[in-house]
From TrEMBL:
Keyword Transmembrane: yes
Pfam family, any one: BPD_transp_2
Protein name per UniProt: Urea ABC transporter permease subunit UrtC
Swiss-Prot/TrEMBL keywords: Cell membrane, Membrane, Transmembrane, Transmembrane helix
Membrane topology, record value: Multi-pass membrane protein
Species assigned in the record: Dongia sedimenti
Length: 369
């Protein structure tokens, strides 16, 4: 029941905000468009945190490279949105995006083919991160790379991709990335209705994956994942193909992260190589730690709370935000190992009265004793 209640709260809250954003601007309950876009971005981050918690909290895979899957999904969406601009770009070229015209490209690269169709783009948004995760996971887990070594390799992966996407000859916009989007599925991205729709879509996708993840970890598959996390050698000794379980959950989490990045791009209006930065992946781990590792709902709460704090602090004290983030991670690690969710469970446990002590009955001596 708790699983569906969380999903209902997420989706219901997004629907309420979306409807309020469509009220006239002078209405007292009107929600501005920038707030809708901000909340949509938070929900995309929450889905990214959920994907990290699935592999870290339940399998023990501390990935410091999930930002790469997020960015790849975002680039796939960005390529689709760039193809929708058509002749409305600065240079009026109906085939080539503006940055290609500026760099004197003569024709559209072959890997941009098909991105004028949303169905093809959607397939790439899911398959590209999943394929990268499969190749990486198969090689790493088959070699039994674990612990801090695996974390360093995942961080190196996202850093290498960041350097590659910075190159202009890669055909992805180089340092500037992809931006100046116009439409999404035929709807203007500047429209309040489109922003509201994207917010609801983000909430629906987050709710769906939360329910699926909760079902996975509650089933026999999830029990095996926890066994691998707690005693991998013993699980392998019992006959479980540990590598297969790790690869499967790693690929699934990468697909989640890729779709989160895909929904993120139309709501922020840009995707550039900075999304591959290792710091972004590390920050996602902090969201999970703050909310509560191994709880799923904690990852969602942590992502929203930390990013809300980031929005507030970067506006008031931008030079102190990174110190505040680092201090928050240290405090949570030392004093709240189970995060916000663990703190809430402790508070609720204290509110429940202890059962009354019942004195043991006194044995009466029988006759003849």
């Amino acid at each position: 029941m708790r699983t569906y209640s969380v999903a209902v709260v997420i989706l219901g809250g997004a629907l309420a905000v979306a409807l309020l954003s469509l009220l006239p601007a002078e209405h007292a309950l009107h929600v501005p468009g920038y707030v809708v876009a901000l909340l949509g971005k938070y929900l995309c981050y929450a889905l990214l945190a959920l994907s990290v918690d699935l592999v870290w909290g339940y399998v023990g895979i501390l990935s410091l490279g999930h930002g790469a899957f997020f960015a790849i999904g975002g680039y796939a969406m960005g390529m689709y949105l760039m193809r929708q601009i058509g002749a409305r770009g600065v240079y009026g070229n109906a085939t080539l995006p503006d940055f290609m015209v500026f760099l004197n490209w003569q024709e559209l690269p072959w890997y941009w083919g098909g991105f004028n169709h949303f169905g093809f783009a959607l397939l790439v948004m899911a398959l590209a991160p999943g394929l990268l995760a499969f190749v990486f996971g198969y090689l790493a887990f088959r070699s039994r790379v674990t612990g801090v070594y695996l974390s360093i390799i995942t961080q190196a992966l996202t850093y290498a991709l960041m350097l590659a996407f910075f190159r202009n000859d890669m055909g992805f916009g180089g340092n500037n990335g992809l931006t100046d989007f116009k439409d999404f599925l035929g709807f203007s991205l500047q429209s309040d209705a489109t922003r509201a729709g994207l917010l609801v879509a983000s909430a629906a996708l987050l709710s769906l994956f939360y329910v699926v993840c909760r079902m996975l970890v509650g089933a026999r598959f999830g029990k095996v994942l926890v066994a691998i996390r707690d005693a991998e050698s013993r699980a392998r000794f019992l006959g479980y193909r540990v590598e297969r379980y790790k690869v499967a959950v790693f690929v699934f989490s990468a697909v989640m992260a890729g779709l989160a990045g895909a929904l993120y791009v139309p709501q922020v209006g840009i995707i550039n190589p900075g999304e591959f930065a290792p710091a972004n992946s590390i920050e996602a781990v902090i969201w999970v730690a703050v909310g509560g590792r191994g709880t799923l709902v904690g990852a969602i709460i942590g992502a929203i709370l930390v990013n809300l704090g980031k929005t507030i602090f970067t506006g008031a004290l931008p030079e102190l935000w990174l110190f505040a983030l680092g201090g928050l991670f240290i405090l949570v690690t030392l004093f709240l190992p189970k995060g916000v969710v663990g703190l809430w469970d402790r508070i609720m446990a204290r509110r429940v009265p202890a059962p009354p002590l019942v004195a043991a009955p006194v044995r009466q001596p029988e006759a003849g004793e």
